Amino acid sequence: LTTTHTQSKPTMLSALRLTSKRSFSVAAVNPYKVAVLGAAGGIGQPLSLLLKLNHKVTDLRLYDIKNAKGVATDLSHIPTNSTVKGYTPDQPDALRDALKDTDVVLIPAGVPRKPGMTRDDLFNINAGIVSGLAQNIGEFAPQAAICVISNPVNSTVPIVAQELKKLGCYNPKKLFGVTTLDSIRASRFISEIKETDPTKEAVNVIGGHSGITIIPILSQQKEMPKTITKEQKDALIHRIQFGGDEVVKAKDGAGSATLSMAFAGAKFADAVMSGLNNEKDVIVSSFVDSPIFKDQGIDFFASKITLGPQGVQKIHEYGQLSPEENEMLEKCKETLKKNIEKGVNFVK
Ligand SMILES: NC(=O)C1=CN([C@@H]2O[C@H](COP(=O)(O)OP(=O)(O)OC[C@H]3O[C@@H](n4cnc5c(N)ncnc54)[C@H](O)[C@@H]3O)[C@@H](O)[C@H]2O)C=CC1
Ligand SMILES: O=C([O-])CC(=O)C(=O)O
């Protein structure tokens, strides 16, 4: 589950073997305080479980408008080296206490899609939820790295940025749209075609987090099977772009991806903490405040980034594209620009 980088660290699942004797020395190395907002939901619960298994987390705060205390009490019986506490709005200052002094805040709060909906259809409800939470983060945890999962990510990330700007505490290096699910889907789906180990496959996925704004750069893949046809390649691109719909359809009204998203969110949070801990070459993809297309009015863009002690350390160029990928990028930019403006205007 841990990110691929040079320094070898214990994995989250190996936490289970490190419960008693070694737990304190491990805790001393990486004492991170992490809050999950929306922790009792479909993503929130398994995400919180995976964070409970991560040694880097010593203080886990679970906030939700309902059932956070139940989830926290349940997780608190797992013998890893973190404390877990639940917070709901019936407690005075719940959000303040959940957020105070945190290093990382993950936001999976909000409604998921039903069949026939786009992520943008979630805007009306989720924009309000995310902006309210962002105001509280600005007030109580302006130092935290903020990882936005709630959809539509292309708009919710600009909403958080705008709220923090209003409060005078926006730090572009510490705001992330979590697009890891696109990357892990790409690894999985390409490995099925190449018949390889998916954990060894990495696809450079850029753009945003919805349909045509998700661009897997397959032309940069080495060792694609020579026999792959254009139809197969187009189908693979489509599957990566619309993998979310595949789950929404299969769940048939019961929501969208939760378990694969929890895995993706935990993996991303682990990378953020590795960066804060000054580990070397922590490279992930994320939708961040980016200079890449700023001159075209597109303030946020997903690409590979290197994480460090201050958050984003380096934003990588996306590299060479094929003519078809350049065409995809042009279409992506049109949609992305509108999605970002919609988020910004919501706060204005
Ligand atoms: N970035 C990505 O790749 C992905 C994003 N998502 C998005 O994540 C979001 C959550 O999805 P699920 O967990 O499946 O939904 P869910 O409905 O199961 O859980 C959402 C949770 O948020 C809570 N909540 C609502 N308003 C809140 C508030 N103001 N403060 C704190 N908590 C609040 C609810 O009580 C609920 O427990 C959705 O917007 C979904 O579209 C889902 C999958 C992938
Ligand atoms: O499809 C959705 O609505 C949830 C999501 O973002 C994904 O699974 O990529």
TrEMBL record:
Its EC number is 1.1.1.37. NAD(+) binds at G38, A39, A40, G41, G42, I43, G44, D64, N126, I149, S150, N151, M261. Residues 33-177 form the Lactate/malate dehydrogenase N-terminal domain. Residues 179-347 form the Lactate/malate dehydrogenase C-terminal domain. It catalyses: (S)-malate + NAD(+) = oxaloacetate + NADH + H(+). SUPFAM superfamilies: LDH C-terminal domain-like (SSF56327), NAD(P)-binding Rossmann-fold domains (SSF51735). Substrate binds at R113, R119, N151, R185. GO terms for biological process: malate metabolic process; tricarboxylic acid cycle. The active site is at H209. One of its GO terms (molecular function) is mRNA binding. It is an enzyme of class 1 (oxidoreductase). One of its GO terms (cellular component) is mitochondrial matrix. It holds the Pfam family Ldh_1_N. Gene3D superfamilies: Lactate dehydrogenase/glycoside hydrolase, family 4, C-terminal, NAD(P)-binding Rossmann-like Domain. Keywords: NAD, Oxidoreductase, Signal, Tricarboxylic acid cycle. Homodimer. Belongs to the LDH/MDH superfamily. MDH type 1 family. This is Malate dehydrogenase. It comes from Naumovozyma castellii.
